Each structure stands twice: as C-alpha cells, then as structure tokens.
Amino acid sequence: MSTASTKDRINSLQSTRSFSASTKxxxxxxxxxxxxxxxxxxxxxxxxxxLNLNDAQRFVKxxxxxxxxxxxxxxxxxxxxxxxxxxxxxxxxxxxxxVWMPFISLLHNLxxxxxxxxxxxxxxxxxxxxxxxxxxxHPPYEHFMCMQVLRLQMPRTMxxxxxxxxxxxxxxxxxxxxxxxFQCGQNTDNLEWVSVNEITKYHNFWGPELLxxxxxLNAIKETRITEYSMEEVFLYVxxxxxxxxxxxMLKPIHITEKDVERLYEDFLxxxxxxxxxxxxxxxxxxxxxxxxxxDSRLVRFFRGFNYTKSNFISFHELLLGLxxxxxxxxxxxxxxxxxxxxxxDDSGIMNRECLRRAxxxxxxxxxxxxxxxxxAMTCMNVKEASNGDFIITERxxxxxxxxxxxxxxxxLCRYQKGIFSQISRALVAKGLRRAEKALSNVLIKRRYxxxxxxxxxxxxxxxxxxxxxxxxxxxxxxxxxxxxxxDSAISQNNHRKExxxxxxxxxxxxxxxxxxxNIIINLVxxxxxxxxxxxxxxxxxxxxxxxxxxxxxxxxGELELLLxxxxxxxxxxxxxxxxxxxxxxxxxxxxxxxxxxxxxPCIGANYLxxxxxxDRGQWGFECAMYLFAFKILCPNxxxxxxxxxxxxxxxxxxxxxxxxxxxxxxIFGLKIWELTNRIFDKLPVCALVDDxxxxxxxxxxxxxxxxxxxxxxxxxxxxxxxxxxxxWEILWSDPCHMQQYLEVADLLNLNPDNLNGFIKNTKRGTAxxxxxxxxxxxxxxxxxxxxxxxxxxxxxxxxxxxxxKCVTIFxxxxxxxxxxxxxxxLADTQKLRVIQLDTVNNSSATD
Length: 847
Prior knowledge:
Its EC number is 3.1.3.16. The chain is an alpha/beta fold.
C-alpha cells in the first residue's frame, strides 16, 4: 500500500464514522495505560523488579501494547513485523523473560487495516501523544501488508478469535535516515531493534511466529489465511474402533472430548497470542503441573513431545505427549518413540551415554550398568565403534522393545499422579471459581433489591383433588373443590375445550373418572388380561365397535388441541424417561407402566416415546389408544414422537392396517385405521431434552443441519416422504461405524471425504447412514451433547455408538423371534441411566 493512500486513510480515520469519539477514547485510554505502566516500572526498586520477574516466570502472560485485553485472556489481536530495510533490523518485544512480536488488541469498531495502522503508530510512538500526532501527519513507513490471518475457534462455542500479523517497512531516505523524526534504533523498556541476522541468537522465544515470518520476509507475497476449528481439536480422541495409532493409545486412559476441550482451552490461554509452545513456554506450562522450571528433564520432555521435530509444540503434540506420561497408558509403538526422543541427545540420536541414562532410570544399580549396556546392544543389533561409542536408531530401538528383546522400558517417563485428571480438575475448579465470583457479584447487586418479577408472579393454588394410594399402589381420587365452584368454573367458557383453564381441564378430563381418556386407560388395562394369543388376538371392545368409535372421536378432538401447540421439534426437560419401539407389545407396555408411571396422572417425571407404536405386534391399536389417553391425562408430561411405522404406506405393507380390519371389519376397521393415522400425522418427529439431548426415532437429517429448521417443519404431515425431506430422514436414518461407512462408499463408488458424514442408507433403501463425523458436526453446530434414538433391535435393549455420543434404545422384548430385552433411559441430574426391565415371563407380541 502506498504512503499517499496511507496518509489519506489516517486522515479519514478522524473524519469518518470509523474513527468515532468512542474509538478516540479507547485509543487515549490505551495510551494512558502504557504511560502508567511505564511510570510504575521506572519507580520500582531492583528488588521489586526481581520479585516481579520471578512471578512472571511462573505465570507468563504477554500483554498487548495498547493495554486492552479481555479478562478471559482470549481476544482479537494484531501482531507486527516492523522492518527497517536500510539497517536490516526488526522490532521485537521483550516481556518478562521472553521474546515475541509487538502486538495490540483489536478495537472492534475499526477495520483490520485501520487497527493495524493505529497499532503501528502506538507502538513506534512509545505511547507519546505528541509523536502519535506527528506520525499521523507523516506516516513513517512506505509499505505494509497483511501476512497472516489466523482464526481460532473458542471452546464450547461457535465463536472464533482472530490473530492478524502485519508487515510494515519503515520509510527511509537515500542517505539512510528515517523520515518523520523516527530512528529505527530507538529502544524502549520492552521494545528492541535487533539485526535480522542476529535474531537467532535469542533462545527465549514465546512462539515460532517471529522466526517464521522474519526468515521469510521476501518470500511472503500474499496473505495466508488459516482456520483452526474444534474439528481439528478433536482429531485425536478415543474412538471405537480407533482409526489410528494415536487414538488406540488414548483409549485406555479414558479421556473424553470434554477433557480434550479443556486441555485445548488451557493451551490456547497459555500460548496466546502465539499458537505453539517454545521450550520456554513449555517450561512455564509444566511448572503449573508441579514441575520445577529448572528441572533438567523438561528439555528432554520437550524433545519427546515434539515428534514433528519443529522445535515448537503444537496442541496435538501437547495432547499426545501428556498422554504418554499417564500412569495407565499402554506401552505401545507411539510411546516407545516418545521414550526414544526423550533419551536421545540434542541431535536426536541415541548413543552410549543416552542408553546409559535410560538403563539407570530402569535400574539405578551402577555396578551392573556396563553389563546391561552390552546386553542392550546385543538386543538391538548395535555394534560398537572404535572410539567405544555407538548409535541406536529409532527403528532398532522400537523393534527391540516391540519384539520383547529389550525389556523394562514401560516404567520410563510416567507421571505418577495422572496428569490428565489433574489438568481437568484444575480447569473445572478454575471455571467454578470464575462462575462463583460472577454469581457473587450478581447476588451482591441484587441483595437489597427484593424479589425479581418472575418470582413475584409465582402463586400457588390448592389443587382441585387429593389422591390416595391403596396398599397395592393403585390411585384413589377424592375431590376437595366444592360442587358450586366446579360448576361455575366450567360454565364460564361454555365447555369449550380450547379455552379451558388448567383447573377446568383437571376437573373435566384428568380427574374425571368418566372422561374418555380415563375410560380408555381402564379399558386397556382390563383388556390386557383377555387379549388372546398371538395367533388368535382379541381386540379392544371388539363387540362394541360403535362405542369404541365414539371414544376414539372424543380423544381425537382433545389430541388435536394438544398437538397443534407442539412444534415438530418439541422441547422437554429432565427428569425424563425415554422409551423406544413398542410395536404392539402390550405386555411390555404394562411392565413399563408398573415400573415407571403406575400412579397416572400423579407422575413426577416427563415421559418421551420415540415412535413405532404399531405394526409387527398384534396389539398395536390398543397400545396406541393407551398412549393417546396417557398423553391427554398428562399433557405436559408425556410426549409422543412419530416413528417410521406411523405412516400409512408402511402400515399397508406390514400389519397395522390388516390388524384394524381383522378386529373391527372393513367399515369400522378402515375408519379406525384412518383416524389413528390422522393423529400420527400431527405428532412431533424429534425432541430436545434440556436443550442438549437430541431424541428421534431414526436419527439425524442430512437436509437440515439446524434445530430451527426442524422447528419450522409444518405441523401436519400426511405424507412425510413428499412433504418434508428432513422429517422423513429423521424417521429412517441410522448410525454406522466408520468401517461400514467406508464399505458403503466403496460399493457406491463415492469419495467418503466429500460426504460430510452422511451416505445413502443401503440397508433401508431410503434416507441416510450417518457416521461419527456427521453426528459430531450436528451436535456441535446446535450446542448438543448426545443423540438418543430407537429404530433398531439391540440384544440388550440398548447399545452405544461413537463412544457414548449416540444411544439406541428398544422397549419391545422378544421382537420377531429375537431374544432381546426391553429397556429405556432415564435422563436426570446430567446423567443418562439405562434401565432394563425383566420381561422374561412376557409373551412375544409378534408371530
């Protein structure tokens, strides 16, 4: 960029909205912070400075030159490569005992280039307001450009922070003197001009960026843009089955994605604004883990961590290096290579002295060391040179240990306390302290302000009924509201159900023994003892078809009013019991009732059913009627989702349509079948528990990636395959492990890397299979943690996918000749608990 255009830009900063009064105020504030910091440092005694240096060595944190940084330590910033071509000097930043690049935090009401220009002026002016004004009038550089844009995703959020690196070339005259009363050799307390050729003499760099960009001053012609998302962070996490050597190594130490995420946050806060660890940075980091900063082992640990041999440690090198130190880690190939690097010399080679050091750590007896060295040489097929030394290659070292020729190395380089659990506990405790401090501040502000409005608005009324349980746990209902009050309350709205208050609904429906829902519950309970057999099933009210039809019409009207207020993605809260497929298994349904909700309607938890109430089993209609009535009696506690068998076309090819006709004849049978399907058309297709658990019958949709898209699906879907692709995919999709995913991709001749974790569901012939990548992306994008679904028959009634991210649950035992169990899940107190029911004495509902 030319100087003329730069001068115009600086002038425009003062005349346009981009350089507003608030921006000037922030700039002045940063100047004052710099001046204040300088004056305080000048007044300190040498003793205080030494004390401050010791503290800095323990907790180094680089500070921006404009003094503006967030309390979290994560903020947008701009670093500078400021170069004087005449003297071939670079401006470097000394803070505490480390060296990096001068940098500022970004002002969010300015653009990147405006921030860069303003930051450059602040840095070279040393915070002097007079010099700032001078440099605004006469910019002391002839060229600048953005060398790098690095975007780093923040943990637990979709937000990114940005680090810019700008190059500025100082403007000099032909005689070698700088314009604008500026000389490149003028050092300050923490800024120093050094020769480009001498930059490598420093060994206390905070990160690799200064060396990287100074060594490539003439090579970088365009901006490099890099993004590091949480997807890269989770490149190595324990998976089943493991995809590579690193994941196989991580599996035994039982770390989770949360542990990896916490470590990433700790790494980011420690290194920033750099994004890698130098040896100096690594020593400071390990001191937090109870190592002494001068511990000679830290240099060797650094070498062991740095498997890329770049002299700087990336996040994944830190993750895998710490894992290698765990006391429970398996002694595999990756860890053996770690040990080789740890004991090798500065050139990365293991010689006699290195081997001697390793053997003494295995067994400290010095009297046998020479004998053991010779034995180790024999194990590794190493020959001694004429000078008595030898070289052991990494390949020979790994081979000897892998083939059990060289033993005893498994005790080396282990940290006895379990460093991962220590880091996780420390970071969780830090987060709790921060939250506690924030909460205490809020409470202090509210201490004398009285109750908040929501609390004031809460009023408790006496319930309209009391309940009594007999010795068998059966519910007895007793009214405590007067007849006059009851009649008055009901007459106010002329019995219009859509306008009933909660009290009126309770009187008319929930605690009214003669309501259609209560009648159906009792009828189905009585029917379960006389249901017939699989080969000769009876039907509910089979000899009173017209009365049954009237009951069904009655509850249909009530369900329409309830379901029209539920989105296709319905939100519910814990505690919540989650049930899988029922498939007409009335005995298992009543086993669930007896265990979980016997005291209808007085239930304390929420109940979520994942669909497939009909088909396959002989009593699909009775199960559906029971669940419809359950929903009416507990409208805010019971959620019924739609399954792939709650679709007319599927039922026509399976058993439910035939079941209705066989039990109730062609006329009433078809009418009953159609009316129950009209109710199915209005059911939600998925649900969120506590805004973090995605629940559905089948799985994830490929055609919709956000929950908001699912909420907007239209309320009634008569033919979901044609009317909503996302709803259809939710009903039919299945999870698959990576091997199955790759096999299907190979079968279909597709590149698996271009499919975003979804591939055609060849097993079902419709919808998609989704792998762990597809599941992880969906969960992260929507801020979710788990998936609970049904749709498949695990032998134990449940199974896990992708570690524990996805659970399949099935609540119909003895399904289609299988010997599977009946199970459900309880979501409560941030735990997912699997519950298996003993249904060994229940009969199969399928032929």
